[in-house]
Amino acid sequence: MCVDPATLTVTQLMVAQLGLTAVTAGMQMQRANRMAQYQGQAAVKQAESANRAAGLKQEAFASRLREDRQATAQESMAVNRKRMQAIGAIRASEKSGLAKSILEIDAERQAGNLQSILQQNMDSASQQYRRNILGVEAERDSRTNQAIDFRNQASANQRSLLDVIAQTANTGLTNYINYQALA
Questions:
Q1: Of 87, 90, 110, 162, which is the most buried if we count CB atoms within 10 A?
Q2: What are the boundaries of each domain within the chain?
Q3: What span, in angstroms and rounded, lies between the C-alpha atoms of 24 and 29?
Q4: pLDDT, position 164
Q5: By C-alpha distance, which of 166, 151, 172 is closest to 29?
């Protein structure tokens, strides 16, 4: 059914324009709300991904620390074994008295130095592990905060039916004032 625009009154044109404005605003609301919902879901997935990645990194760092501890324990046992062999060899030798004591003390000193180096290396590895974990946690927190910001922006972009009604009423009032000024 086509209507000749020349036969329409100002009121009818205004009502038609209000109807188009309401439909357009309603469609914009639906699109904005769908987009906000999608962005909200993406933000949740982003936060979950940040948590998973942080967990995997922490697990990798913990595994590395365990391997370092095992290697250090093996090296420590090797140092003790060499110390014991050296002391045994010194005691089995023909040397006696002061020379024997000096050699035993030197073997103990060398073993102590090696044990000290191993302990320092282990302490350093433990400190590096703590720094790595702090870095992973900071990265995870940053990514989670970004996801929260993204979700909050999505929520702010949502529109309500009240927005549609207000936009339609505003258009109607503006057009009414304009038509009255022309009349």
A1: 90
A2: 15-157
A3: 9
A4: 81
A5: 166
